[in-house]
Amino acid sequence: MPLTEPYDDHLPEEGPSVAAPEAGGDSGAGAPEPEPTLLEPEPVLPESETGLPEPEPTLPEPVRQRIVALTAAVLPGLPADEVPVPLRRVAKFAPNRRARLGGSVIAAQLTADPLFRQRVTARVLADAGDLGAAVVEGTAPAAADPVEVAALAYLVRPRGWRELIDASGAAVRAEADSAVVAELVREAEQRATRAEHDRAVARVEAEKLRDELARVREELGQLREESRQLQRSLRETQTRERRANELLATERGRATRAAADSDAELRRARARLAEAEAAAGVAKASAKEARSVDDARLWLLLETIGQAAVGLRRELALDPVDKLPADFVADAFTDAPVTAQSGPATRARDTDDPARLDQLLALPRAHLVVDGYNVTKRGFGEMSLEQQRKRLITGLGGIAAQTGDEVTVVFDGAERMHGLPPTPRGVRVLFSRKGETADELIRRLVRAEPPGRPVVVVSSDREVADGVRRHGAYPLGADSLLRRLARS
User: Fold this and answer.
1) Are residues 358 and 352 in contact, defined by beta-carbon separation less than 8 angstroms?
2) For the sheet containing 474-476, what is the strand order?
3) Within its chain, how far is the Cα of 4 from the centroid?
4) Which pTM value belongs to this model?
5) Using one digit for the tens of pLDDT, what is the confidence trace for 251-300?
6) Which among 51, 84, 269, 273 counts the fewest CB atoms within 10 Å?
7) pLDDT (tens digit, 9 = 90+) per residue, 178-221?
8) With the CA atoms of 202, 204, 210 and 214 taken in that order, what torsion angle do they form, in degrees rounded to the nearest 10?
């Protein structure tokens, strides 16, 4: 086949000798530059009777692929100005892709550009060694690969290069024919082996079929005997069936009479049910009337209690207050020791259940007190203290907005911090003063609350939990608040 499959036109062969590579060019793989005298001028081809140059020879496919591979191997070593424009992009491909993706373009340039072919030839001959020198002289060593010889002959084009290509094609075709013959012989041997195996299998199967036939005949005799027995059983079964039908007719008559009796009993039961439903309606109306009386009594009791509370508030002259107990603790701390309330604190329950926090915050007028740094260092200790305070205060603002409860967060600090973010509505931020810890301030806040008010203290400090529990507060672990904040 021609070297360039996509192209039909062929340029006339040129005969100038191959020029030596430029001094600055890469000779490829570190080999010395070829001598310019290795190539002889290509002979001028005789023109046909029409005056046109002889066309390119038809190359065997292995020869064509070898020519493209040799050109692709030396292509990156050529100077950029010696590489044709269509091949400059191909030269940048990876070695394993250059011949595969750029084969058509390389073949077209070798056919159309004799000067480029001579430059490639010089690089290829430098790597070919003695074989390249023999091809330049127009001879082919007997032990050489005919495909390699034909590829070098096409590039060098010494005298008689067409004969070298034809000889290579004949050798390739001979090898292909030999391979075909060997394959046919191998297939014939395989078919013969399979046929012998099939005959042996057929003989074995025939023996099996004869044994199976004898067994089937024996089973057929047994089946005939069983058939005769089944026929006798069938006649006996038919006799029993006739007797059963007679009994069935008798039982149907009895069932019909029983169904009539059941229908009469069902009608009587329905009548009794209607009477019971009427009695139930009367009882329901009586119960509703009795419940109305109880509701009226309960409403009257609650109204009496409410009016008594209003009268007591008016008698004691209690005006609405603007401050809560925690506000007084925040404004001025008292240095006098405060004794704990006597008596058992029955309302405190130590639990870390996250759902428990939601239950406690749902109580009316609940007060949530948070040990600030104890929670932040457990939940997001990788942040700075300022970022910890900001994140916690923002989350507590969301809880205060959702529940409407009073929220107080306490941090350790000798003096009030400056530059804090705006405090959300409903959240009170306190810092312990110099000489006092946040734990002590939390206990002061709990003691300041009136008995009976639900106070929830969030801290994983066991000492803080034990202290506030003695004053009737509900201690919870820091994890319960962190999960609540994550859920919000």
Assistant:
1) no
2) 427-431, 406-411, 367-371, 455-458, 474-476
3) 48
4) 0.36
5) 998 999 999 999 999 999 999 999 999 999 898 888 888 887 777 778 77
6) 51
7) 888 888 888 888 999 999 999 999 999 999 999 999 999 999 99
8) -150
